[in-house]
Amino acid sequence: MASRIIRSHGGSYALLDALASLFILEAMQPGTELYLISPWLSNSRIIENSYGRVGQVFPFLNGDMVYLADFLSTCAWRGCKVRLICNPEHRITMDFIRSLGANIETRVLTDNHEKGLIGSHFYIHGSMNFTYHGIYINGESVRITTDTAEVNSALLSARMRWEESEAI
Q1: In sequence order, what are the beta bridge partners of 86?
Q2: What's the pTM?
Q3: Residue 22 — φ and ψ, nearest 5°?
């Protein structure tokens, strides 16, 4: 798969399955850096784990669900530089940021409407905020690519966005 577009209305198995697959692969062997750019963030559930299928991938998991914080914390614990660019003025976003460990960096970029998750091997972008409503409720269009040139371009752009953003 070089590229795939998923249109989700009210959540879709295609989107959830794609996110779960990418998050599991990245958590198992994260790249050197991971950028999450989303004005709004919340600790949304990502992967159902009631049968313990991914418990070994996420060593600090408590319960039957893998949440966004579990994914980010696991990547950081495995040596990945995890960076968030968001708008902490939203209470839910600030609550989420406070729940994360100190090894995850967060910055503010005012007037930002860009949304994406950029790793060393993939790039997810589109209209979706990384929140419960973005993943499960709202009608969204998300593009996922593993094309090396696009991923590298997105990483360069994310690094530039990071430099122009402000510390919280």
Answers
A1: 108
A2: 0.94
A3: -65, -40
